[in-house]
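User:
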Amino acid sequence: MKPNYIEETIAINGIKEYMIHYQGEKDAPVVLFLHGGPGSSESVFAYYIESGWSGNYTSVYYDQRGSGKTYYQNKNAIPTMDNLKEDLLQTVLYVKEKYQAEKIVILGHSFGTVLGSMFAIEHPEHVRCYIGVGQVIDIIENEKVCYSKLACAIDDAENEKDKEKLSAIGVYPPKSDDAKLLKKMNVLRKMQGKYNLGMKIDWNLIKLILKSPVVGWPEILGQINGMKVNNDVFRELWDYSLYAYNRQYTVPVYFILGENDNETPTEIAVKYFETIIAPEKQLYLIKNAGHMTMLDNLKDYQLALKDVLERNS
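Assistant: Predicted structure:
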């Protein structure tokens, strides 16, 4: 384990951005972790993700605009896809300079794969390789599959009350201008958790958060307000599709996917992965893991990550 971490706040793109570094040896590969959401900081889990690690690399986590400690210090800085992309570019440039690295590894999780994929395609000059965990491909396709799987699970359970609750959502996925878009998505995600098709906010997760050495009121406030603050980003995401981008990457591409991920369904990511061209590509399917792959099966996630870094050393 890299027991020592460094916290800092940097000034980029007109905001104060929170970062946490777990440093390897000099000249070790640098991995920039892009969290999910939008609005769901994962720096609070960094201590767990980095625990038990036997390899040599430097990992950097940052809270995006509208998330975690960055939200707490910039409550009036409203996120959009454009400013999140510019924030990422400036963050990458800062990290490269700090560690004197010609290129760094971009690792995205969930919504972070949206930012990460676009960055790898648009700014390959900064990217050593791209890693997608819980890879998002197409939002509408994603939500259609989520809804279909949940409906089947409810039918199998013969739960009439939940059938009515799901039916009350109406047409899903809704249009991006639907005033109740976030509310409908929230209902779906909570029901997915109930039927083991999504992340559960249970005592085990709460304990993991409370054990974090960097947890505090700023993170809690950021999590509470994250979805609301990122309302515009969610609506922009409704039109997002990785199918619309060039599938010929100029950097190595790796997907680390939980076999049981039903929030960003694994089968969609696998289907897309088979169609891309890259200098090198490799798919890792992590058993006994869902959307929170690194929390569900840390050992196998770390083994996959170690293999990727060794391939790019």
